[in-house]
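residues and backbone:
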Amino acid sequence: MIQDIFPHRFDNQYRAEQHIGDEDIVLCYRDNTLLLKTDGETFGLPRKKDFPEISEQTESTFLFSLNDVSCFLVWDELAAKEPDFAYQEISFFRTIEQPEIAWVSIAGLHLVNWYTQNRFCGKCGSRTEHKSNERALVCPNCHTTVYPKISPAIIVAIVSGDKLLLARNANFRGNWFSLIAGYVDVGETLEEALAREVKEEVGLDVTNIQYYKSQPWPLSGSMMIGFVAEADEHQPIRVDGNEIVEAAWFSRGNLPNHSSTISIAGEMIAQFEKGELQGCGAVKKVSV
């Protein structure tokens, strides 16, 4: 999955005292693009030394470290000095062959979105400030503290014997299918959210819910919590017609276009295709 970048090392520990240095990595976002070094089809992460315009007056925020090199968000828009630098649409992360750049790019996007959405206190409207000892924003007026938002969401591979249920979201392009997923609501357990989402979106009742694994998904600020569940394929499928416009059971060797293994959905689908989805380790059976 996209966060699995070994042998590269990602460290999200926040270092409040860190100041940007010449060799540090610079992440500069503009709308839905990121400034990258370019060399044909190869991308690289720019360093502070690449931009003489970055000074002590330039607003920057420490984000995390990659291979022990600090990564900073630079708020001022930097010039894309062609042909060596260019702003790339963030969707490049899906096809780039350098997994460490893909992961750092979207992890940084998660944080820049959070900072941007919380410039002002939601309680009193005062401008927020970064806390000095942790990754959090605090209101100097009413002292409200805001931490990065992470939304829990379930995603489930529903199986019936040697078949897998796949669904096409209304926002998917063409003949593109994936697993059922949805956000956990207030007061719900993960298992309750799973049963509700499946019932709402495709009208099925599920049993034998088993935990698979989890994946952070920065694009939506989510923590995707994966499960495998069983359903009787003879139940009628009733798509909600809103989020889901089509759903069906598929057999191995006959799967439609679907997510790649950079996502937990793609990994679970690939495990099903290989006949290994049920062998996902010491899973714990739970009931709803």
Observations:
- The first strand starts at residue 10 and ends at 11.
- The chain is about 15% helix and 35% strand.
